[in-house]
C-alpha cells in the first residue's frame, strides 16, 4: 500500500513539473521571449519533451510578434493523458487485472 502511494505521489509530481515546464515554454514562445537565463533554462529542460513532436508540428506565426508552439501544446496534452492513464493504473490495479480484452 505504501509503495502504491509513493508511486502515485511521484507520478503526480512528474506530471505537474512537465505541465509547468511546457506551459512556460508555450507562454515564452508566444511572446517570443528568448533572452534571459530562466527562459533558456526552461527551453533546455523542455526541448526533450517537445522534440518528438517538433518535426510534425512546427511553430506557427500568429502575428508579427506572436508564435504558437503547436508541438508543445500537443506534447502537454499527450503527456498529461498518458500520465493520468498511468495514475489510474497505479491507483486501482485490481480493476485493471479484472478486465478481459478477449472473448
Query: How large a portion of the residues is in β-strands, by DSSP E?
Result: under 5%
Tally of contiguous helical segments: 4
Structural class: mainly alpha
Distance between the termini: 32 Å
Major beta sheet, strand line-up: 1-2
Helix content percent band: over 70%
Based on CA inertia axes, which overall geometry fits? elongated
H/E element sequence: HHEEHH
The total count of strands amounts to 2
Overall pLDDT: 85
Main sheet makeup: 2 strands, antiparallel
The number of domains is 1
Spans of at least 5 consecutive residues whose pLDDT stays below 50 are none
What's the alpha carbon Rg, rounded to whole Å? Answer: 17 Å
Please tell me about this protein's structure.
The chain crosses the membrane at residues 64-90. This is YGGT family protein. This protein is mainly α and 103 residues long. Helix content is 73%, strand content 4%. It has one domain (2-92). A two-stranded antiparallel ribbon has the order 1-2. Strand 1 and strand 2 (67-68) form a beta hairpin. Helix 1 (2-30) crosses helix 2 and helix 1 (2-30) runs antiparallel to helix 3 (70-91). The radius of gyration is 17 Å and the shape is elongated. The relative contact order is 0.17.
Amino acid at each position: 500500500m505504501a509503495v502504491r502511494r509513493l508511486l502515485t505521489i511521484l507520478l503526480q509530481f512528474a506530471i505537474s513539473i512537465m505541465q509547468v515546464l511546457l506551459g512556460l515554454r508555450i507562454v515564452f514562445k508566444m511572446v517570443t521571449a528568448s533572452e534571459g537565463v530562466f527562459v533558456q533554462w526552461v527551453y533546455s529542460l523542455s526541448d526533450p519533451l517537445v522534440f518528438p513532436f517538433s518535426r510534425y508540428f512546427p511553430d506557427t506565426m500568429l502575428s508579427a510578434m506572436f508564435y504558437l508552439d503547436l508541438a508543445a501544446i500537443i506534447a502537454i496534452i499527450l503527456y498529461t493523458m498518458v500520465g493520468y492513464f498511468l495514475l489510474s493504473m497505479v491507483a486501482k490495479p485490481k480493476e485493471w487485472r479484472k478486465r478481459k480484452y478477449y472473448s
